[in-house]
Amino acid sequence: MNLVLWIIYAVISLTAAVFLGLREFHMLQLNGYKTPEHSRWMKKNKNRYILPAVLLCAQFLLIPLHGGLRTALVIVLCFFNAIIALTNKPGKKFKKPLVYTARMKRMMITCGILIAVFYVIAVLKGETTVYICRIWNEAHTDFTYDSMEKRWFISALPYILVGSALYLTPILVPLSNLINKPIEKAVQNWYINDAKRILSECPTLHKVGITGSYGKTSMKFYLDELLNSQYNTLKTPESFNTPMGVTITIRRDLKPTHEYFICEMGARRVHEIKELCGIADPHDGIITSVGPQHLETFGSIENVVNTKFELADHVKAKGGKIYLNGDNELIRKKAPEYPNAVLYGLSEGSHYRATDISVSDRGTEFTVTAPNGETQRFSMKLLGEHNVQNVLGAIAYAHGTGISLEKLTLPVKRIAAVPHRLQLLDKGGNMTFIDDAYNSNPNGCRAALNVLGLFDACRILVTPGMVELGAKQEELNFEFGQEAAKACDHIVLVGKAQTVPIYNGIKDAGYDMDNVFVADSLGEALTHVNAYQTDKKKIVLLENDLPDNY
Asked: Which residues cross the membrane (predicted)?
């Protein structure tokens, strides 16, 4: 074996393994550290792994080759390993970069140990294999150990082991996650139990859980604004709606002076809301919506309904109230099972009802009627009739705590759009953005298109479409395209492959396809939007912005 050549090969391969490993860890983190989800993601993105798979097989050609031929093949492998390193080189700007959490560091250590095993065996020149060859030699007298070492596998083994450490990195990363699972479970349980202890030491704290297929983050911000006008409140920040997100909030931010804890609860699988209820133990709950979201992991809309209503089941057992969006058909069907339910909505039969809604591009006005017949006129800066539902839910809950409708008018007027959820961004000049980039869904898309239709302007849609809708994804994106064709003057699709159903829906609606552009990236899409020539002001709806793992 050429020692210098092997060292060069080992250094290049190790560099490539580190860079590829960092990218794989990043994708695993974006997939929520869920190995099944990450496996599905790998299957969808199988083209990423073609080169490592080919090289994994090709390196075994080193076994029969010797001298110049082997050297040539090693140089070729070095070249392709360098391509893997350059392709995955750190420095690319991501929407959500890799976060080096304690969990991530532990996984990286485990993965590093797995890779180190390959290198240790390689450095030792495969003594285990040598031993096997000796046994073989004793059973086959026509071969000699020396000839086998020179002509066969042993001298190729260090290259194969080092190469395998690189080419198998996409498997070693999720494997390290599985190996660490018992450790991570023990760590999480310790933190969760500590959070429960902290909550138990706050007997006067009133806890409210908020869940829904969509609208839960907005509801959380709106409710915090209203309750904060009279009470000392704490809410889970941003989209901290997982068990560890809730746990972190409690351990880091909860103070004895807090009177209300507003806990957002997210779920992608059955029983995840039940798990969150076991941590936060809410007295009351709000279910903002139930719809076809995360069908890929839930499996069916029935599972979505039952999981969201795990919050209602918990609250019912505690004797608290569950506030339900009465305009949602799936929620309304389930509501009779809960005698403690308070319905809010625009439709008749709701306990808290909004009527006389007036919507313009400057905001929304509406009248709220409470169960006791009290009425109050509200105005807010938020755009769209759909926003009335969430604000109405917040009003209903706040009124239930003892704040009068009249006292709620000012905090409602103060409510601002939640970032990336129909947030109006006036950039000055001839262009205004409606940023609705977070976690798009069928109902959200329709609502956003309705808001876009409020403006007397050149209405432009920029979207990569909707994801995580399982078997219905193509159908729902097709319908989205049909609806977009009715509302938009120009449509820019981001991503050639995944936007095909939207494109077909637009075409099916008889839209002028000269006004449709398909971009490879958001940057290219915005460049194209800037190039549009129009006498009217441009209103650009940014509908959904897929994370880096799409």
From this structure: 6-25, 46-63, 69-86, 107-124, 152-175
